[in-house]
Amino acid sequence: MYKDQFANALRSLFQLWQQHALLLPQREQLAELMAEQPLIRNEVREITRGALSINNVSFRYGTLDGWVLNDIFFQMNAGECVVLKGPSGAGKTTLIKLICGAAAPSAGQVLIDGLPVESGIQKLGAVLQTDRLITDTIRENVLLFRGGVIGKSSCQAADDEIYAALRIVGLEGFVRGLPMQLNTGIGEGMTGLSGGQRQRILLARALIGDPKFARFLTRQPLA
């Protein structure tokens, strides 16, 4: 029995080493991108309340394409929780990308606390459908995009900050109970975490740094 356990552990370790070696070139490229200066030259401002205004926003991918969103208007006060509901292709993901600043509206404005999202605002967190775990430790997964360079954790967030985010999503006890705790290796292709636990780590990634405005987009409202 112990021989089989040792063989399985050794096999898992070798698979982890292989994945790490395969990802090294991509990690280096991403590190270069993360180190580049942002295109936004405006003064960076922090969100203080988190009020959202979508002012007559329209969007299409090209001048010859149809409108994905057309003259959308709504407001969300600080502290409110809003669910976007609609059929596939209705533009829910596109609207979230506009709110995140990942895309620019073809017309209208997206404002947070009266500031355009493209003006370089901070204290903003998001979890999108395409977000994934990286093959690394729990610590690096939670700190992803907060440290400036992937794998370096240059923001030096204290472990208690990470555990605070994990506590909010209900994973603190689970992680503290692991032999390696925050140094536990995880990834999309690895076993050991349930689907719900993976989603909670993504939520903790968005919550680290105490964002004043957070957006979470899933395919199912109870995901």
Task: Record keyword descriptors for this entry.
single chain, 223 residues, alpha/beta, four-stranded antiparallel sheet, two-stranded parallel sheet, 6 helices, 35% helix
Walk me through this protein's architecture.
By secondary structure, the protein is of the alpha/beta class. The chain folds into 2 domains: 78 residues, Rossmann fold; 92 residues, Rossmann fold (3-Layer(aba) Sandwich), CATH 3.40.50. It is built from 6 helices and 10 strands. Strands 3-2-4-5 form a 4-stranded antiparallel beta sheet, covered by helices on one side. Strands 1-6 form a two-stranded parallel ribbon. It has a two-stranded parallel sheet with strand order 7-10. A hairpin with a 2-residue loop joins β4 and β5. The chain is elongated.
Tell me the name of the CATH homologous superfamily of the largest domain.
Answer: P-loop containing nucleotide triphosphate hydrolases
Helix proportion of residues, in percent? Answer: 25-40%
For the residues shown, what is the average pLDDT? 76
Largest sheet: 4 strands, antiparallel
Helix and strand run: HEEEHEEEEEHHHEHE
Note the quaternary state here.
Answer: single chain
